[in-house]
Fold this sequence. Notes:
This protein is an alpha/beta fold. Helices cover about 45% and strands about 15% of the residues. It has helices at about 1-40, 50-65, 75-90, 105-120, 125-135, 140-150, 160-170, 215-225, 240, 265-275, 285-305, and strands at about 175-180, 190-195, 200-210, 230-235, 250-255, 325-330, 335-340. GO terms for molecular function: nucleic acid binding.
Amino acid sequence: MFNFAVSLLKTLFSIIFKKRKDVIFTFFLLKKENEIMKRHLNLSGKKITSNHSDRFCLSLITALSKRAINHLTIVKPETLLEWQRRFIKKRWSFKHKKRGRKPVNAELKNLILEMKTDNPLWGCRRISDELKKLNIKIHHTTVNKIIQTFRKQGKIQSNGSWKKFLKTHWDSLYGMDFATIDTLLGKRFYLLIILELKSRRIIRYDLTENPCREFVKQRLELFAEGLLGEKTLIHDNALQFTSIEYSWFDIEGVNICTSAPNMNAYTERFIGSIRREALNHFLLFSEKQVRKIIKSYVDYYNHQRPHQGLDQIPAGRIVSSTGKIKKERILGGLHHNYYRSSA
């Protein structure tokens, strides 16, 4: 009987204590929510936000009393459980010391960049040795990694880059290529183009049905006679171009890489322009008609058409802001040239 009474009292006490505990924690939970809502009202209608202290208190209360979570109103229970998991994860996460070499500071990296830029022939070992003279000890492999990073960022250009070659020879660079033109009668003509890169002018062009080596040599001879000074001619790997000895004409021939038309981009661009802006808009029947269209377009391209690389001003033209604006038809009205008449 006594044992039964003791067990009954224990049961009643545990029930009362549990209910009391849930009531207490629910009270603290609602009190904390009330504080958060008061702070929210002072922020004039902005989104309800909770700081680190709020999240910790709410997570702690719900961890001690699982029933208190049913009284949450400002956040979802899933959100609260996620906060709790984050606290536990952060509690048992330890920061590990980084091992290995100390990172290279920005000042030294910039010095390596300056050395490589000023001395493009220097390798990583040469730069490492030069730094030792300044009492800066850094391994050549680290120097190499820094240089490769700068190279990927575009801060270091390859010593033999195509861009550098173009800048070095810009005043004497020309591009040469063939363009194919087909007529409705099934004939195919080949248009040879020699373009000056600096001014975007077509220096020489000619049309043929037989684009042989002798045809190219004759046009190169005429091209070389009309120009003085150095001449560097970029061309593709067509047999008509590669089989010619350019030194006979006092010309330096430069082959582009296979399947790399961008290395002769200016000439390729002209071929695209003459097709889009002229040839594609006509029904082509005869060689005479094709020659007439090409002549009109080349005159327009050389003297009147704006070029993006020349600030949209045709080569040799002087922009005037006075005089009456007039226009002239190009290619039967396909294009128009606008200009100011002289006063």
